[in-house]
From TrEMBL:
Gene: dapB
GO cellular component: cytosol
Residue positions binding NADP(+): R35
Name under which the protein is recorded: 4-hydroxy-tetrahydrodipicolinate reductase
Family matches, as NCBIfam families: dapB
Pfam families, sorted: DapB_C, DapB_N
Catalyzed reactions: (S)-2,3,4,5-tetrahydrodipicolinate + NAD(+) + H2O = (2S,4S)-4-hydroxy-2,3,4,5-tetrahydrodipicolinate + NADH + H(+); (S)-2,3,4,5-tetrahydrodipicolinate + NADP(+) + H2O = (2S,4S)-4-hydroxy-2,3,4,5-tetrahydrodipicolinate + NADPH + H(+)
UniProt source species: Alteribacter lacisalsi
């Protein structure tokens, strides 16, 4: 039995995670962290399953009272970083589903996880199909190095580009030599028209109501194009990855950034 605490239970992803944990035989929902509803129970929160699970507004108090094995954080970048550090300092293995971590953040958390000999996972995307999209894109880039990324998300997403897009570009950069794409004398007549630049690749971000999470990686070659696309139609699509991360984080003793490292 894995005892789990969820931070952000009222969000769209948080609600799905609560339901997944309650439905999984080997998981036990020990508590939830919600800065606005400390002292209540999960049953008190509108729209959430009827369960006598305590709600805490202080993560340290939550960890000390419930003694969980795993923290699943589905809040926002700033809160996720704080919760991750507090979890590791209190002997709890974090599974973080918020993006926006810098390389320095990841390095700091990695050193902390190693010093505590605790597993930790930061997942820019929990959808298994999205992980496969990234891995397939890395393979394609070995043979078609001219590539651009278009990512689309709902208009409440805080960071741009998405963590998935950044992670995809990082994976491609590992097998692709840096090169500037487009015409050598290319000029933006409107700033930002060509998107963000990562080692010569361009990333374009769309933010619109009605979207969930979508990404297309487009490769161009002589007389041909290749498109690798993934669409999350609803947030239930992320739950198999959350479940897998909760199980895997119990088996490792270091920080893992990206689920592609645990689905070989």
């Amino acid at each position: 039995m894995i005892r789990i605490v969820i931070a952000g239970p009222r969000g769209n992803m948080g609600k799905e995670a609560v339901q997944m944990v309650l439905e999984t035989d080997q998981f036990e929902l020990a508590g939830v962290i919600d800065r606005k509803n400390g002292g209540k129970t999960l049953a008190d929160l509108q729209g959430l399953p009827d369960a006598a699970v305590p709600v805490f507004d202080d993560p340290v108090h939550c960890f000390q009272e419930t003694q969980p094995d795993v923290l699943v954080d589905l809040t926002n970048p700033d809160t996720g970083k704080v919760h991750m550090k507090l979890a590791l300092e209190n002997g709890v293995r974090p599974v973080i589903g918020t993006t926006g971590f810098s390389e320095a953040d990841v390095e700091e958390m990695s050193l902390l996880a190693e010093s505590k000999e605790l597993g930790a996972i930061i997942a820019p995307n929990f959808a298994i199909g999205a992980i496969l999209m990234m891995k397939f894109s890395q393979t394609a880039a070995r043979y078609m190095p001219d590539v651009e990324i278009i990512e689309q998300h709902h208009d409440r997403k805080l960071d741009a580009p998405s963590g998935t897009a950044v992670k995809t570009a990082q994976l491609i950069s590992e097998v692709r030599e840096k090169k500037k794409q487009g015409h050598p004398d290319e000029e933006e007549t409107l700033q930002g028209a060509r998107g963000a630049d990562v080692d010569g690749m361009h990333i374009h971000s769309l933010r619109l109501p009605g979207l969930v999470a979508h990404q297309e990686v487009i490769f161009g070659g002589e007389g041909q194009t290749l498109k690798i696309r993934h669409d999350s139609i609803n947030r239930r699509s992320f739950m198999p990855g959350v479940k897998m991360a909760c199980e895997e984080v119990m088996r490792i003793g270091v920080l893992v950034y990206g689920l592609e490292h645990i689905i070989e």
